[in-house]
């Protein structure tokens, strides 16, 4: 084959190149994750990258809610100024306080205090990581190719800046203003942001197979209040249990508290469910044999954080029903469950659109992390808007200039008009005087 | 395998699903292309879609510059009010007039007249298509799934609106304002826009293999003035030929005019070159064995249209040298050629970034056209900004409201201050009067 011919077939041979690259290159990746549900999906990406022979080091606090070691990657822990028990109590309070019988104002203050506690705890973990000289020196000597982090806390970005590493961000969707704020104050060198607007589904479900197979034609309902809340007051639990007892499906519920006394036969409690990353949702799959692309309709009970936003988006597309977790009755739950279980058209359509993509999302995430590692960043993918001042971004300089020119023009025209008018008036004044004096 | 387990592995099985889909579904696609260089890359996509068993119908005028029938798809022609000779003359004038010795002002008027002629010709072709009742009825009866078009002329969009078809646009990059203009006046239902910011390279080069193999270690230089210009005045051609004679590479030049008398031995003229879609560029591949990912440095001589923009972008990234086609001397060309041939670092870097993608661009384009055909559109991928009025888009309503509130506040504060001041003044006035009268 002639050289020229070969040279022109680059596009066609790209998959081969990518395939070869798997065996040709392996890099070093530093991961600074965020504790909580976001870690559950980030972990899938980190494990996949480690399986592709990259040297992956994950830095995490010695006490955490969901951050855990794995056989797939190296973990470096750093000390924190709180015990595992203190941490569990702080997270536990969020669930319990949501259901107490305080006024709206008192409850708002209490929830704010809870969230502040969590943030203070995370910030102190971050401080302890950055002041751990031994760890930071180890990270420095390791000469990583890139850093993967969640930018909700500035720990990862600061470390990236200090170690001069290109950064890949993995987040659920940060408000633009907050991102831009971080970007300007802190001079972050962000390379790529993954907006995790789709959740990745887990597949290690073997231990639940027996129950699922027993559920028969009706299938199962999975009940979870998110990864951070696993226990609620007994009164509320009983309300929920009563509703769950009215449906023919088998119910799997992640619950670490005391079993409610009215627990129905179809409801089983578990300390942990693999779908835990599906925050604050009822998952109610139809037990039909519609195949692997079967969509899952939802009853959503948003708690806090971005759950309300997620829930409302699902509801607005007709793919779920949202309930107020504080005011719902067992009848509300029962009606909502039946509504979603027997009306799957919208969720099926959304599912079709969601799954119809040119490349699986995990492969895409792996590609872009490796891209940043290979090319030491991706400045050409960064919107040029990030380098503009806010005055430029909103075109205020242009508008002000045009407004200035317009006003100046108006001013000059007015002055000219006034001058002309005065001249005319004077002349006509003189003329009328003349004619007056003539007529006299 | 349990049902639940299957259900949860959707992401992993996506490639299989896509593979199965190739054989399961075939749709009907209507293509309304734009004559000129853009057709050369659109044709690659259209042929690929036809190969995937879709029923593809391309509508084109009976006389055209580059639009041609193909064995891969059905072509429907419609009559136009000009002959092939008239069309050739109009396009030929553009090249000849660029080099004439008129003043800048006269030349601008002439080029504007040329472009107007082309646009008038295209518009009349468009009118003839839309008023061809027999053809439009045929298209209506065919019940297509989607329409693929270039939106520079409104022919495709109007037809899509009339036939109520979801539309996929394929374009080089239309100014935003123009797009938004079309979008609001004409109520287009655009589904997906491909911004063709990367060119697709062709691969049918067999007839040139002998020449390329003969070129030896220096390799070849390909010279093309774009698909619309293939002939220039003899004086300018001789200037270029003189420069091309000074380099050791073999030169392939697409030229339909009379061969210049000073043609060097290393320069061969051809009526057609497959790289024709590389508008207004010198293509100067090094003849080395750097493999299929070999980047091609360029000397660029922009003519008209978006060529200046493209050329300046390449130059700003250090990947090419731009020459003024009207003022360049043979020495300028020679120096520029040697500069790019012996300085390939930047173009190599750009090429690496460009080729490093998760899926080949042609496959991606095929995926999204088929996506629109499968789901009858893709409204969820359309930016919500398109549904905003321009006042909303630029937040002028919000700014005006805030400004209004601010001004009202300022006015009220001022009035209050004035009122207070007056009260104080009056009192102090009375006081001073009183004290005066006392002292008297």
From TrEMBL, chains A, B:
Keyword Hydrolase carried by entry: no
Signal peptide: 1-24
InterPro entries: UDP-glycosyltransferase, UDP_glucos_trans
Localization terms from the record: Membrane
Principal cellular location given in the protein's record: membrane
Transmembrane segments: 398-421
Single GO MF descriptor: UDP-glycosyltransferase activity
GO annotations of cellular component type: membrane
Membrane topology: Single-pass membrane protein
Keyword tags: Glycosyltransferase, Membrane, Signal, Transferase, Transmembrane, Transmembrane helix
Superkingdom to which the source organism belongs: Eukaryota
Keyword Cell inner membrane: no
One Pfam family recorded for the sequence: UDPGT
Family as reported in the entry's similarity comment: Belongs to the UDP-glycosyltransferase family.
Protein name in UniProt: UDP-glucuronosyltransferase
